[in-house]
Design a protein that fits this description.
alpha+beta; Beta-Lactamase; Alpha-Beta Plaits; 25% strand; disordered N terminus
Length: 577
């Protein structure tokens, strides 16, 4: 008896009718018959059991439904995959994290992926024993609810030790054009500097297809032939010394051309989107990223230009279009890189500082407290905008370290800042920090004790959107903080999701209305919504604060709507202590 199979661009799959949960087609030597799949376990085994990739399937409550042998071979060699069924996946992730070189970062990223419920691919992590594991995450959604989480894992150590995922078993690196990754970077960088391309020219990154697709569909021999043809055509157009195959299906190109439109046209003209591989034809699906001196200032070095082009091609995958690096993207890339590589040095050098914005009773103008806002004063580039480095810090995970620094610094300055009875200082905490909550709670307790601060003087602000993304983690964090005696404020209220459900389940003391309500307060509908916010605050016994009070009119209309406390430039701008 045989299953019906058909080819798809990524792998072999079972060809099934819509009612596959009940039936599949089978051939028993006499003809095609309809056969019943006896169970959900059999369905998963039929779909995933034959794959060489490690597969883990979780149900909607994050308990194991299925794991194949390839998965246990990666994580627990020798374990019967059936013994994993029913296990708590978050608990398993905690235990598994210790096998990675950066366990907390891996665990934080894993939880954030599940909370975000967005498919990811080619997410790579290094293990403590020197292996590299690559994973994909595929949430299955029905009626806006994830009912199945699918994880695919593969060992890609060879790509890092010998970064030649296409062709290492068949042809020499000389034929495929792949040499050592670091050497290729240096050659491109040195040549860019020798030709003065970093001051007048461009570096183009081109990615074609996907490594796993090539290996799965055509084998190493077919993949080698395709990659070799791409390399030869690019070198024929741009010059042999100006093109390097960097890694997998990624190529780097140097050129004195600076017009990005012409560069894209020239590159795509060379790379015919459909080409033969043996008896088949394949579509290249080319992604192009360009760093050119026409759109940004001169590059500091060849390596600087290289990293910029690398960022551009990464963005092309996210945006599903060709990307030309611009000033904002380049500035963000520098900030992101510096935070990732130098966060401990930045903190030790006291490059961060706090500015405080007053929170005011708008009826009598009494200052009730302050919100602490972190600023980065870079020794070379000056003040870096908060929206730029906070976003980068959240993406890279270093925000947790910044949050711990902020709570300590706010407690250190609290005795000088809080001069009137009942005043408080509020600090923000991010979603990434909620996932590293034990470290954060320890930092809070330590800061309170070190500077003899009453916990009632401290408010922790969490955004409604962050809570919605990981309500369980935030509930645990908030409960622990309130147990210490710290107040909790829901920030940016009204722009997140599942608002009432969050308020029902999360204990809080303050509700900060998002500034968008104040900006539109002249509209009757906005005023009604603000009154609803005030009513919600009364129901839960919490103080309601309006953000974005920028004018006298804002203040007067807010008071008419029943909001007594506000924060904004009209009431006081953020200032250092």
């Amino acid at each position: 008896m045989a299953f019906v199979r058909t080819r798809c661009p990524c792998s072999e799959v079972i060809h099934t009718p819509p009612s596959f949960h009940e039936f599949y087609l089978a051939f028993d030597g006499r003809g095609w018959q309809t056969a019943r799949v006896p169970s959900e376990e059999t369905r998963l085994q039929v779909v995933f059991g034959h794959l060489h990739e490690g597969v883990l399937v979780e149900d909607g409550t994050r308990h194991v439904k299925f794991a194949n042998k390839a998965f246990t071979d990666i994580f627990v060699p020798g374990l019967d995959p059936e013994l994993m069924v029913g296990g708590d996946c978050d608990e398993a992730a905690i235990q598994t994290s210790v096998m990675f070189k950066h366990p907390q970062e891996w665990l934080t990223a894993t939880r954030a992926i599940v909370a975000g419920q967005i498919s990811i691919s080619n997410d790579e992590w290094e293990t403590a024993d020197g292996r590299w594991l690559q994973r994909d995450y595929l949430p299955r959604v029905k009626e806006d609810e994830v009912f199945e989480h699918i994880w695919l894992y593969r060992d890609v150590t060879r790509q890092h030790v010998h970064p030649d995922p296409v062709g290492v078993d068949s042809f020499s690196s000389e034929r495929t054009g792949l040499r050592d990754w670091a050497s290729a970077i240096k050659r491109l960088g040195d040549r860019a500097e020798s030709l003065a391309i970093i001051t007048q020219g461009a570096m183009v990154f081109v990615k074609v297809l996907d490594v796993d697709q090539l290996n799965s569909e055509f084998g190493y021999d077919g993949g080698d032939r395709l990659i070799t043809s791409v390399l030869e055509e690019l070198r024929g157009e741009f010059g042999e010394a100006n093109v390097e195959r960097l890694k997998g299906t990624v190529f780097g190109i140097l050129t004195t051309e600076t017009d990005p439109t012409l560069l894209i046209e020239r590159t795509r003209k060379v790379l015919d989107p459909t080409r033969p591989v043996g008896d088949h034809f394949v579509s290249l699906h080319t992604q192009i990223g360009i760093a050119t001196t026409l759109t940004v200032d001169d590059f500091a070095s060849g390596r600087d230009m290289f990293e910029s082009a690398r960022l551009a091609v990464r963005q092309s995958k996210v945006r599903h279009s060709d990307v030309v690096l611009d000033v904002a993207m380049r500035s963000y890339a520098r900030v992101r890189t510096e935070l990732t590589s130098r966060i401990d040095e930045i903190l030790a050098d006291n490059q961060f500082c706090l500015h405080y914005q007053p929170i005011v009773n708008m009826e009598d103008q009494r200052v009730l407290g302050f919100e602490a806002l972190v600023r980065w004063v870079h020794p070379v580039r000056g003040v870096i905008p908060a929206f730029e480095f906070i976003t980068a810090a959240e993406e890279t995970g270093v925000i947790a370290k910044i949050d711990r620094w902020v709570i300590r610094e706010a407690c250190r300055q609290a005795s000088l800042l809080l001069t009137e009875p009942g005043q408080t200082v509020a600090v923000n905490v991010s979603q990434k920090t909620s996932l590293a909550q034990h470290d954060y709670i320890g930092a809070v307790k330590s800061a309170l004790a070190e500077f003899a601060i009453d916990p009632a003087q401290v408010v922790i602000e969490v955004t409604e959107t962050s809570i919605a993304q990981d309500q369980a983690a935030f509930h645990e964090l908030i409960s622990a903080l309130r147990g210490i005696g710290i107040k909790i404020s829901i920030d940016d209220f009204g722009v997140g999701s599942s608002t009432l459900a969050i308020l029902k389940d999360i204990p809080f003391d303050r509700l900060k209305l998002d500034r968008s309500f104040t900006a539109d307060i002249s509209e009757p509908r906005a005023q009604e919504l603000i009154r609803v916010g005030v009513a919600i605050g009364e129901i839960f016994g919490s103080q309601v604060i309006a953000e974005g009070v920028e004018t006298q009119e804002h203040m007067e209309l807010l008071l008419d709507c029943g909001v007594q406390v506000g924060q904004g430039w009209h009431l006081g701008m953020p200032q250092p202590l």
